[in-house]
Amino acid sequence: MNALSPSVDVNATPMVRFEAVGKTFGGTGGHPAFTALTGVDYTVQRGAIAGIIGRSGAGKSTLIRLVNGLEVPSAGKVFVDGVDVAALDAAGLRALRREVGMIFQHFNLLSSRTAFDNVALPLEIAGVGADAIRAKVLPLLDLVGLSDKAGRYPAELSGGQKQRVGIARALATSPKLLLSDEATSALDPETTQSILELLKRINADLGLTVLLITHEMEVVKTVASDVAVIDGGRIVEQGRTFDVFTRPQHETTRSLLSAASGGAKLPEWISADLKPAPQPGDRALVRLVFFGETAFQPLTARLVAEIGPDVNILAGAIDEIAGEPFGSLVVSYPAEPAVLERAARFYAETGLTTEVIGYGV
Ligand SMILES: Nc1ncnc2c1ncn2[C@@H]1O[C@H](COP(=O)(O)OP(=O)(O)OP(=O)(O)O)[C@@H](O)[C@H]1O
Fold first, then answer.
1. pTM, 2 dp
2. What ipTM does this complex have?
3. For ligand 1, atom 5, which residue shows the shortest CA distance?
């Protein structure tokens, strides 16, 4: 159980399971082979909102396209709700795609169809009759807050409204899994938040499992109960979002975190001049992470009392990851053995998580 996805059931068959999955493109007809994914072991629990984060070209889209059979693995197996996707015949694949909805960065709406008719499309394709379509589409438009826009064309809708139509369309066939491919990347921050809130509500109210891929830390931080970090076609780190982001183990996670807007961010003029090792007279710049309850405790006063008066606070923020509070502070103090020793003792006593960012003046 967790705060963000109350319906997670870790004992049930996972909604998605990757077992040693690899994907190589090309390698035939004189085209050089390109390995997009290697050795991916990954599980999405039923009822979760799972995020996969990585930079452009990391392999995110390839990974998500393997889930609904738009790509076939070159190695390993992909299971959706216990079913091996590669073993499905054409009818099986059609059935799978009714059970797996998808939303896209650029919404992919048909411009010649109204909002209503866009949402109705998957039902028309499935051969559902007009009355049943109406009975399904109107509540969906209501769910996404667009009851009054049923007759509007995509060109008459804002980006956020278009994505709401996209979400309603993805839900039309009552899927058990929703795939989101950078669904908020074309939206402004405020609209992004409202779409993420909608995804959270759908997850909680309908028990729908959500697998989203994004390059935006903010998206994962806001909605995902679990996260996997992908780099160069490999999953380099995965776990509960709070754990991964507050105690990042891999360099890629750290650099994605430090590039993110939230948390304690150093001004460019300080971060640009940092050195990996101290020179005489340098100061150590250290990021301190405070978890949960302790995020709000007045540790700064103790910091000065324990380490010494020459502690500067360079940046600080209290943030929330996956619904849990955490704070971070970037402090500096002289990189002298006596000071560093006092600091290390203080961190060990208080259980603070720390990371030396570098050394500078
Ligand atoms: N059909 C294909 N043929 C050849 N190479 C491909 C194909 N599809 C993807 N690739 C390559 O695989 C790598 C991973 O691409 P993918 O689209 O999965 O990354 P991504 O993390 O989703 O990045 P982006 O956010 O930029 O789409 C890229 O180097 C891409 O060029």
1. 0.83
2. 0.94
3. 25
